[in-house]
Amino acid sequence: MEISIGKYLEYLRMSCGYSLRDAAKKTNLSHGYIRDVELGDNRSAGSQIIPMPQTLKKFADAYTASFDELMRIAGHVHSDPQLEFEFVELDFSTILYVEVDYNNNIIYHGDSCRYIERKSLHDFIIFEEQLENNRFLKVQGGLYANLFKIKAYDSKSGRLYFKENMEGHYLELSWIRASKIRKIISNAISKNTEKNLEHTLNSNSFTKIIRNIVSN
After folding, report:
1. Of 28, 33, 67, 88, which residue is least crowded by CB atoms under 10 Å?
2. Residue 80 carries which DSSP code?
3. What is the pLDDT of residues 14-48, one digit of tens each?
4. Whole-angstrom Cα distance, residue 98 to residue 119?
5. C-alpha span between 6 and 90 (Å, rounded)
6. Separation CA 135–CA 145 (nearest Å)
7. Strands 85-91 and 207-213
8. Cβ contact 167:175 at 8 Å
9. CA torsion, points 150, 108, 205, 135, in degrees to nearest 10?
10. Which of the 8 DSSP states describes residue 172?
11. Best CA proximity match to 71, nearest among 18, 79, 28, 38
12. 27 to 40, 43, 60, 113, 199: CA distances (angstroms)
């Protein structure tokens, strides 16, 4: 069953990291109306709210979304879906590191999963701050390691590993960068290899709706 236009718009807003009031400023719509649309509830008429095309255009511009896709989901036009992304509720405690590539794609690397989404520069600046607040360390330009996941560092190769046996995923650090963050890395590795229960319970288990790209 396809997602409703209200739920789709809610996920778009959440993937942007916008509160209802943020969304109201971006769209020039009231936050009460936006929430009613998301809930699919017209309180005054007692029926589902289906935004008009001109309103959907405001949502599309504010959320950097496809106007054509919003029109299709809302039922204003009928065509086959052309999915560019899928919504994923991502638990960041499962992510080893985050990578930003030259095409402005944000790639989330887990031990056995990989997701990709694209953000504007403004949205990425906000997101970068959120990453740092949740203990993701910038180890090189465009690479952010989960401090709760790193388990070993090989100074000879300059590789930061997520397993104690130095196998599997790793990140490469320049000697200059490694010298600047060595203490942070050492402290994190010490905690992560001590089987410290309190440290584990306080891991960065925040979740976020992302737009995982399904076609490039």
Report:
1. 28
2. -
3. 999 899 999 999 999 999 999 999 998 665 555 67
4. 13
5. 21
6. 8
7. antiparallel
8. no
9. 50
10. E
11. 79
12. 18, 21, 9, 34, 41
